[in-house]
Write a structure and sequence with these properties.
The complex is a heterodimer of chains A (450) and B (716).
Chain A: H1 3-30, E1 47-54, H2 66-80, E2 92-99, H3 104-117, E3 120-122, H4 133-136, E4 150-151, H5 158-161, E5 184-186, H6 191-200, E6 205-211, H7 215-223, E7 235-242, H8 252-260, E8 265-268, H9 271-283, E9 291-294, H10 301-307, E10 315-318, H11 326-331, H12 333-342, H13 349-372, H14 379-386, E11 413-418, E12 421-426, E13 443-445
Parallel strand pairs in A: 1-2, 1-3, 3-4, 6-7, 6-8, 8-9, 9-10
Antiparallel strand pairs in A: 5-13, 10-11, 11-12
Helix pairs in contact in A: 2-12, 2-13, 9-10, 13-14
Chain B: H1 2-11, H2 15-38, H3 46-77, H4 84-101, H5 106-133, H6 138-159, E1 176-179, E2 182-185, H7 186-208, H8 210-220, H9 222-227, H10 232-255, H11 263-271, H12 274-279, H13 285-305, H14 319-329, H15 352-372, H16 375-392, H17 394-400, H18 408-452, H19 455-473, E3 485-486, E4 491-492, E5 495-496, E6 501-503, E7 506-508, H20 512-534, H21 536-546, H22 548-553, H23 558-584, E8 586-587, H24 594-607, H25 612-631, H26 636-656, H27 664-688
The chains are: A alpha/beta (450), B mainly alpha (716).
């Protein structure tokens, strides 16, 4: 046997031994003869209960965040399956759904119930969660006030966004330590702006359309990568504020403004807004626009079906892998699981965040099991583990965020609508993100007043 | 000399005209000020003005069509249809179902919707609901149509899954004709033409045809119209069918301008047409059309030439409400109606001792439930008590003096703000007192239109006021801000009511203290309201409600009385608002939206608007709709039932009041009293050995709904 073959054999043996050792350590930590038992509120010998609090059954806005509920329930099915590891910490994952109904009392009751029955709240999507006091004062099985670990998707109030007990999947745009300063510092992801600049040059200028139904929503759009793209590539000829329910005729002045300014850039925050803008632009024969720009609000089948050929060539930017793309689902197994277990018709943009929240919860629990065994999982331990997660990407389906540091992701995927479908333009390889560090810029604005 | 005096007299201006002119100048100055302050700096050119007119008229035409339907229904049935927007929304969904889902050709689908489905819907509404409330008190009419609106919104959400996207393609696609730089698509041109055509056509119908005259005659006097050979039922049904068709046209025109069909968007957009209907004074169709155009032009003017930033970002959303409020202020003094005497079941005024006993029993029940309930159920019960307290504020105002307020939620918000602002410095008791006081100026502001307006106009003015407060006042950073503000818990002498405590040897759980405090507050306010009812002021309020003209002749000062009742009502609502804020721990703009406030009036009327026990029952009803689904077993059919009752329940309850305008408590009480009296008479007759007299003493009803115990009856 030649010397090189010997060396290859030795190397292979070492790899095998290393793998076996690692497996043994892991198995020891997980089993080590330990039988799961009730260790915490929501953790029994056989089940681990998590809460999903979401606004679903409201008469005025029915099924608002049903996508979050469906995704968390889907994620539980996945985690309990063989492919997902057959449960967490040796127990079956059970989801308790609490409907917050866009109602303050129902929301608080949901928090109370979650505190009483569940080890953590995952994928929380409640508009009226304006105070985190209930979660903060939540007691564990020993009666000590530990708080309820919260991994939300929707966190409208600063109190939740910057709470040390909440780990938002969509980190707040503001850097929490600067909230009380004037001005505050924001962290928009403006990655797509560099692409536009490179492709179309420095002379992009046009209109930005924000929703004015709620000032806080308007502000958060303005300070994010949506409104702050202007710092990289696309100067504003004029900012427009328009209700999300405004009819198409109210977009005529905007199109006329674009005509008069010879704008070559147009952006709208919400999908329906973009559809109406594009339809009106077609109606008024507006030409010369190089970039029609939209973000996650436009990433849906509905955008394609309602927009039809009018939204062709529209750019759409997301901070997660495009789940409607078969190629991306093939490239990223977790993305495929999201669609498979949530259901093809139920999977939506909200769901991606809620599903990812469940994966973050899984990571925290697994880390604790690895550190202390299946009976060491408590709320306190989950907090400790969540606070250690600084790079989280839900097994690659989600742009990497600093979960514990509440820092936004530099990663994004830019797509363009072509022939009635979303097609990747940056990066083009399925399953990948553009994660250049420069994509996140710091901007100082005084939004929170004095 | 005589000729000079006559000439002077002929050019003299009446005080009312003078007031109107002065108010008009003030408003004009305000509008100019707003325009100057918000001017975006865009050049005003021929093109920009032409363009503004084109788009504004297009947009305004949709409002004009919707408002025309409102006016037609009101003129021909005497009922102002708050559900007009919801009918239009429902018709738009029907059109989508026919055209998109079932693939029926567009023109046929349009005809089927406008000329078949919508009229049938209108006829069913008329036969099933409106006929029963034709002679009901105004508040019952308003509540019925609000109930219909909520029920249709709930039903649409159940029939057409809101998660699914639906859209209607533009008629004639993108083809149209050019006006200057702007393309006018045929669909928008048709909207303008149809709006104008309807205004003219309906004007002719109502004034020049036998049918139109019959429609108006039925409203003036149903019986007399019948004696003249008119069939009031059929005419009224036709009116509602016509009004529904108008709503359908508006709904479809709006729907084709939207990216997706949405229940709330369609309903609320058409609600904006109320201002146009009021500009037309609910009778002039040409003026209504002009009103619709004014709304469209105002919207487009601000869109083209003004810029709103910072705290005023959301201000344009208030434009229809501001126009509605202004239109109401400029309405001529309402006529004093004396001809219509409405009989309804009359509630009894309990004795103070009885009221106190009732409230004590309620408190004891609440305390017992506090011991057995889980914390979430305790909170739900607390919310029910708070709802009762808020409803209680409407009892003197709407129940006795018949001043219909849809702005109660604004007083509640004012109280919550006052408590969060000053509660920390003044302590709980001081904070609650300030909350009640702070709401009073709001009540006074609302009372000012009430001095001139009454009935429906007052209801609409209060609705506009509440919407304006929701958009322009509460979101200010100095008030609640856009994200809301936290409110401290109840603390008196260091005792925190939200914490668990030990009393009478019993451990009371978390939040039970707050609940008991609120129950006690409800009891005290409830007894005070009964005391007020029995007082001289209470009698004045009832007199005002019965007949403003007659009350004036008896020496009642209507200005002072109206101001007084608004002050009292606002103070109670403000007090309740502070407690609501404490209960929630925060106060946000969303808590005090006008639409949320409608449910209070709706369920209070269901319970019985003139009685304290009606508020108690109304509070239970309102809370039950959201609470019930949470306690039902997790069986598929029960879950589905829970969903249906939560979406349809409040609306159906409101609709149901059409059959019993007095409310549940007075009606049931009356039935029980009549039954008892009959039994007593039978017993006495048996004892005397004679058959019972057919004339068993019955309580006597008065138009205000107050019972006078009959002479010789045991309760006298």
């Amino acid at each position: 046997m030649s010397r090189s073959r010997w060396m290859a054999l030795v190397a292979a043996l070492m790899v095998c031994m290393g793998t076996l050792t690692a497996t043994a350590i892991s198995a020891g930590a997980q089993s080590s003869g330990e039988k799961p038992k009730a260790t915490e509120v929501g953790i029994t010998a056989t089940e681990i209960h998590v809460a999903v609090i979401a606004d679903v059954d409201s008469p005025l806005s029915p099924n608002l965040f049903k996508g979050s509920k469906d995704a968390v329930e889907g994620a539980a099915k996945f985690l309990n399956s063989k492919a997902g590891g057959g449960g967490l910490a040796g127990r079956k994952v059970v989801v308790d759904f609490y409907d917050s109904k866009i109602n303050p009392n129902a929301t608080t009751n949901a928090e109370i119930s979650a505190c009483q029955n569940d080890v953590a709240a995952v994928g929380t999507s409640a508009v009226f969660l304006t105070s985190v006091d209930e979660m903060r004062n939540c007691k564990d099985s020993t009666g000590a006030v530990t708080g309820l670990p919260d991994i939300p998707f929707v966190s409208t109030a600063l109190a939740q966004q910057c709470s040390d007990q909440s780990f938002p999947m969509a980190p707040p745009q503001v850097i929490c330590s600067t909230v009380s300063q004037h001005p505050q510092t924001f962290q928009p992801n403006v990655g797509r702006g560099y692409y536009y600049k490179k492709k179309f040059g420095n002379d992009l200028h046009g209109v930005y359309i924000f929703g004015n139904d709620s000032k806080s929503a308007r502000d958060s759009s303005f300070v994010s990568g949506i409104g702050q793209l202007r710092i990289v590539c696309c100067k504003s000829d004029k900012d427009f504020d328009l209700s999300g329910s405004a009819p198409q005729s109210q977009y005529t002045p905007i199109v006329q403004e674009m005509k008069s300014q010879s704008s070559n850039y147009g952006q709208a925050v919400q999908g329906p807004q973009m559809v109406l803008l594009r339809k009106e632009a077609t109606l008024q024969n507006l030409t010369g626009v190089k970039v029609w720009d939209c973000t996650t609000g436009c990433y849906s089948k509905d955008f394609l079906s309602t927009g039809g050929s009018d939204v062709d060539q529209n750019y759409v930017d997301t901070l997660y892998l495009p789940f409607l793309s078969k190629a991306d689902r093939k490239a990223n197994p977790m993305l495929n699981n999201f669609v498979k277990y949530t259901g093809e018709n139920n999977a939506d943009g909200f769901g991606v965040y809620a599903w990812s929240a469940m994966i973050a919860f899984r990571d925290a629990v697994n880390a604790q099991v690895k550190a202390g065994g299946v009976n060491s999982v408590t709320r306190k331990a989950i907090f400790e583990q969540l606070n250690k997660i600084h790079k989280f990407n839900a097994d690659g389906m989600f742009g990497t965020i600093d979960l514990a540091g509440r820092k936004t992701t530099p990663c994004h995927v830019l797509m363009q609508v072509k022939n009635g479908d979303f097609q990747r333009v940056l990066p083009t390889k399925p399953g990948t993100f553009d994660c250049a560090a420069k994509n996140v810029q710091e901007v100082k604005l005084d939004i929170y007043g004095s | 000399m005589t000729a000079t005096v006559q000439r002077t007299r002929s050019i003299s201006i009446s005080p009312e005209t003078r007031r109107t002119v002065i108010a008009g100048l003030v408003v004009a100055a305000f509008v100019v000020f707003v325009c100057v302050e918000s001017w975006a700096g865009n050049p005003v050119t021929f093109n920009s003005l032409l363009f503004w007119l084109i788009v504004g008229i297009t947009y305004g035409s949709v409002y004009a069509v919707a408002a025309t339907g409102l006016v037609v229904t009101y003129t021909t049935s005497g009922i102002f249809n708050f559900a007009q927007g919801a009918i239009g929304m429902f018709a738009a969904y029907i059109f989508w179902q026919l055209q998109v889902q079932w693939g029926i050709q567009t023109f046929v689908a349009l005809m089927l919707t406008v000329f078949v489905a919508a009229p049938i819907m209108g006829a069913i509404i008329e036969i099933g609901l409106m006929r029963a409330i034709a002679d009901a008190p105004l508040v019952a009419q308003i509540v019925t149509t609000i109930g219909l609106m909520l029920a249709l919104m709930g039903l649409a959400g159940l029939l057409w899954d809101p998660q699914e996207t639906r859209h209607i393609n533009r008629f004639f696609g993108t083809s149209g004709f050019q006006i200057a730089d702007t393309l006018m698509p045929w669909s928008r041109f048709i909207t303008i033409v149809v709006g104008l055509g309807l205004a003219i056509g309906l004007k002719v119908l109502l004034s020049r045809t036998r049918l139109g005259v019959a429609m108006r005659a039925v409203v003036d006097n149903r019986e007399l119209a019948g004696l003249n050979g008119i069939r009031p039922g059929r005419v009224s049904m036709f009116s509602w069918a016509l009004g529904s068709s108008m709503a359908a046209v508006a709904g479809i025109f709006l729907a084709e301008e939207l990216a997706t069909l949405d229940v709330q968007t369609l309903t609320l957009l058409i609600l904006s047409a109320f201002a146009a209907a009021i500009i037309g004074r609910l009778k002039s169709l040409p003026l209504t059309f002009v009103g619709g155009l004014l709304i469209g032009l105002a919207f487009e003017f601000q869109q083209n030439f003004l810029s709103w930033t910072g705290r005023w970002t959301t201000a344009p959303l208030a434009i229809p409400q501001i126009m509605l409020f202004l239109a109401l202020l400029f309405l001529p003094q309402a006529r004093i109606e004396g001809k219509k005497v409405i009989r309804q079941v009359a509630p009894r005024i309990p004795k103070l001792r009885t009221a106190a006993l009732g409230m004590a029993i309620l408190f004891v029940i609440v305390a017992i439930l506090g011991l057995v309930f889980q914390r979430t159920d305790v909170r739900t019960l607390t919310l029910a008590l708070l709802t009762m307290l808020i409803m209680l504020s409407l009892v003197p105002l709407t129940g006795w003096s018949l001043q219909i307020s849809l702005a109660q939620i604004t007083f509640v918000g004012a109280g919550a703000f006052a408590f969060l602002q000053w509660g920390n410095d003044l302590g709980t008791i001081g904070g609650l007192a300030v909350a009640a006081l702070f709401a009073i100026p709001f009540g006074v502001v609302m009372a000012l239109p009430a001095l001139r307006l009454q009935g429906l106009y007052l209801a609409l003015a209060t609705m506009a006021f509440a919407s304006m407060a929701e958009i322009l006042f509460f979101p200010q950073p100095e008030i609640l801000g856009f994200d809301g503000k936290p409110i401290r818990s109840l603390k008196i002498l260091g005792f925190d009511f939200s914490k668990p405590f030990h009393f009478l040897g019993i451990d009371w759980g978390q939040d039970v203290g707050t609940m008991l405090f609120i129950a006690a507050a409800l009891g005290v306010v409830g007894v005070l309201v009964v005391w007020l009812h029995r007082s001289v002021f209470g009698r004045r309020l009832r007199a005002l409600g019965d007949s403003p003209a007659a009350s004036v002749t008896l020496g009642v000062n209507p200005i002072v009385t109206k101001l007084g009742v608004f002050v009292i009502s606002a103070a109670i609502a403000g007090f309740a608002g502070a407690l609501l804020g404490v209960f929630q721990g925060t106060a946000t703009v969303q808590d005090f939206q006008m639409l949320n406030g409608l449910a209070y009036l709706l369920l209070l009327v269901v319970g019985g608007v003139a009685v304290v026990s009606g508020a108690v029952l109304g509070g239970v009803f309102l809370t039950m709709f959201t609470w019930l689904p949470t306690v039902l077993p997790n069986w598929a059919w029960l879950t589905e039932f829970g969903k249906w009752q939560a979406r349809l329940g409040p609306g159906l309850a409101g609709i149901g009041i059409g059959r019993q305008p007095s409310g549940v408590v007075p009606t049931v009480g009356e039935d029980l009293r009549a039954q008892n009296a009959r039994k007593r008479a039978e017993r006495e007759a048996r004892e005397r050995g004679t058959p019972p007299s057919p004339g068993v003493p019955q309580p006597v009803s008065t138009p205000s709904g107050v019972t006078e115990a009959p002479v010789g009856s045991p309760g006298a």
